[in-house]
Amino acid sequence: MNFRADINGLRAYAVILVLLYHVGVSGISGGFLGVDIFFVISGYLMTGIILSRLQQQRFSLSGFYASRCRRIIPPLMAMCAILLMVGYFLIPPDEYKTLSGHIAASLSFISNLVYFKEAGYFDAGSMYKWLLHTWSLSVEWQFYLLLPLALMFTARYLRRQFGWVMAIGAVLSFALALVVTHLHDTLAYFMLPTRAWEMLAGGLVYLAPNSRLTGQRWVILPALLGLIASAMWIDAGTTWPGVMTLIPVVLTALIIHVTANDSPLLNNRVVQPIGKASYSIYLWHWPLWVFWHLADLPVTPVSQAVLITLSLLLGGLSWALVENKAGLLSATTPVALGNAALLLLAALLIVAQQGFPARAPQSVSQISQYAKQRFTAARGCLVVNSKQSPQCTFGEGNEVNLVVLGDSHANALLSSVVASGNAASDAVVFIAQSGCPTVPDINRPGRPDCGDFVKNALTTIEEKYPQASVLIINRFSLYLHGENGSSDDIPQYTFANEVSSLTSFQKHFTRAVKKLATHRKVFIMTPVPEFDYDVIYRMTRDAMRGKPFAIQLPREEYLARNQDALRMLHQVVAEIPNVTLLDATQALCDNYFCYGARGEVPLYRDSNHLSEFGNKMLGEIFAGMWRRINGESGVTVLPPQYAAAEISRTF
Predict the structure, then answer these.
(1) Residues facing 471 on adjacent strands
(2) Rg (CA), the chain
């Protein structure tokens, strides 16, 4: 195919949107749609390359794959090699092992599968995944493997009906994306079957005949403005991929169809160099952002500008020295593949050697061990997607006198709850689903059974454990406002025929508590403090550099994060008899700070789940709860009026 200056310019806009989004520039809340622009461009170019050669009867499948190897692997390999070398000196063993595993996945082009299994694209832990952005490369590579086979099959057996085949494939993929996004948004985000329609849309543009819009360069301005406006309007809470994803896909397809090579917006001295180096810029921008956080450097408008500049410079160097030069890394396809295989083996060796722990201070290993400790007796008791719980029972009492009901935070505190009771007489039943608040009829992304799970749990408690008290532990602020540290403040739930609001959440939650509290004691744990970084990673990184630990959160930040949840809980207590709040901050905070560590011992195993050591800090609170359950006095709670006054003073 002939070089298209307009497409090259469009690449520049795409990578700049991604850059602005990832460094946190205010107002670019949907810059991730730059990846969707790249998908459409790739679909157009690959379809054009394959079909033009098929028509000339000179298409070679091995030649196509070889050209993709020489284009994609060398810059990726160079970046991964540098990360491995730098990481040896800077990154703690566990994180270095994880990085090496991600490098192996990226070089194998399966990193989208790995990141899907680990978590989501927008979660707080993404800041510790140096190669998170390579998921899109894996999706594209998987598409490159299948597209020529599909087109060759169509050419031979379907009478060259490329348009119909692509259109049907795009429609099916788009329909699948809509369904899967509703059921499991993370799965839909990372997987080829739910992303293929975007690349197939590019292929359809190649097959489309010229129209009245072809050559009309005036179309470029409104189309580009539409992409930029979408990047400012769309945010992490938008269903993606979904109906809204049509906006960047259609606008990108329109720009490509117009074929405005002479458009000054797409063909000028600024965007053309950026477009040429866009792949290398994309590769380097995210590791720079992660390194910025590794070094604990501040994020300010100036630092954001510095990061963007560094991304452009390193991307330009990568383009000049690796991507655009048939040198040592990419002289031939065998050389490129051979070097990649050696680097892959090196990464797997590091994984096998657990990140070479001997190079790190002893304190690093000790800190990491706390993150790995689990309440082994509760293995398999926390469900992920299910309408029923195994209802695990702990203790030797003949009669269940407490049901712990909640989500993964309940699971993190369970061993402390059990240990605080009398094992000989106190029996505890555990009912919890990860990411599922104790709210009937709620709809949660990636948790399609959550609402039914809660309804079934309430019925089970009523029928099987009518005399047992109930302890509710939820990560309330996640559901009300999204992940801690995210710039978006978006409810992470919906209700059928209701607006997602604090009022609706509180109404359904209150209804559940009221049902439970009609003839039993109900205890609700206030939210535990959350950090916007992984406590274990922060401590081990600091230990690697000999930096003193300062794992603490101003109490005002805790109150700001949880003000709506705390107000809701105090209103529930005021409205419903037999309900008591247990105040997590009494064990984890003082008047000024909430703490994530005691000396060199982490109280958390990530950013928000207490470790097995940390949950024992709440032992006295749970002991007081047990005394109240057993008819004694002495439960320690935060008086509702004091909490409400403290919250109101903060804002």
Answers:
(1) 404, 523
(2) 27
User: How many whole angstroms separate alpha carbon 553 and alpha carbon 571?
Assistant: 26
Low-confidence ranges of the chain (pLDDT < 70): 119-125, 326-331, 485-489, 633-651
Residue 465 carries which DSSP code?
A: -
Residue-wise pLDDT tens digits, 114-162: 999 886 544 546 778 999 999 999 999 999 999 999 999 999 999 999 9
- Torsion, CA 630, CA 631, CA 634, CA 640, rounded to 10: 100
pLDDT tens for each residue of 17-71 = 999 999 999 899 999 999 999 999 999 999 999 999 999 999 999 999 999 999 9
The C-alpha atoms of residue 125 and residue 538 are separated, in whole angstroms, by: 12
Mean pLDDT, the chain, rounded, equals: 91
599-636: string of b/e by CB count within 10 Å (b at 16+)? eeebbbbbbbbbbbbbbbbbeebbbbbbbbbeeeeebe
Length of the chain: 651
Residues with Cβ within 8 Å of residue 463, at least 6 apart in sequence = none
CB 502 within 8 A of CB 476: no
Residues 487, 483: Cα–Cα separation, whole Å:
9
End-to-end CA separation in angstroms for the chain: 60
Residue 449: CB atoms within 10 A of its CB come to: 18
Distance CA 601, CA 639 (A): 30
Distance (Å, whole) CA 584 – CA 608 = 13
Residue 221: CB atoms within 10 A of its CB come to 12
Mind spelling out the 3-state secondary structure of 377-398? Answer: HHCCCEECCCCCCCCEEECCCC
| Cβ count near 56 (within 10 Å) | 8
C-alpha distance from residue 614 to each of 206, 411, 439, 508 (Å): 58, 13, 27, 31
Query: Angle CA(350)–CA(354)–CA(360) in degrees, nearest 5?
Result: 100
